[in-house]
Amino acid sequence: MRKASFPPIVILLDFLFIFLFVITQKESKTVDIHIPEDKLFHTAEIFHPNSEKSTKHENSFLLDCGNQLECKNAKSKYDGEVFIYIPPSLFKKISEMTFFAFESDSAKCGKLSIYISAEGELDIPKIFDQNKCLNKIPNLRQLYEQDS
What we know:
alpha+beta; 2 domains; two-stranded parallel sheet; 5 strands; 41% helix; membrane; transmembrane helix; transmembrane
């Protein structure tokens, strides 16, 4: 009976493929957006896909509804997917910070955690405390603290 054997080059290429796959997975950039646990901020709206407001929210940003009381009530009321509508002004600030974090030569963050305060604004101190890579970008903290 003949045994199956693989040439060493095939085994080497398999290991190389696995190594490169693991490396690319570790370097993928992710953004986590954290909203207040106890209550939604005042500019947020609960939205469900069958809503009559769907045309208004066509070009906006929606987050999955979390464990807030408003979300739990809406999920039971609409019996399905429920989202949190993020206003365009807040989404613009999140986008800018994400751009700086991932595209700046001095930072190159791999993962970014964005925190939204109860007032519906970026929680700048918490964002910079949790994302040390942002502190490497010159004057970024001052820029965001001026806007607050």
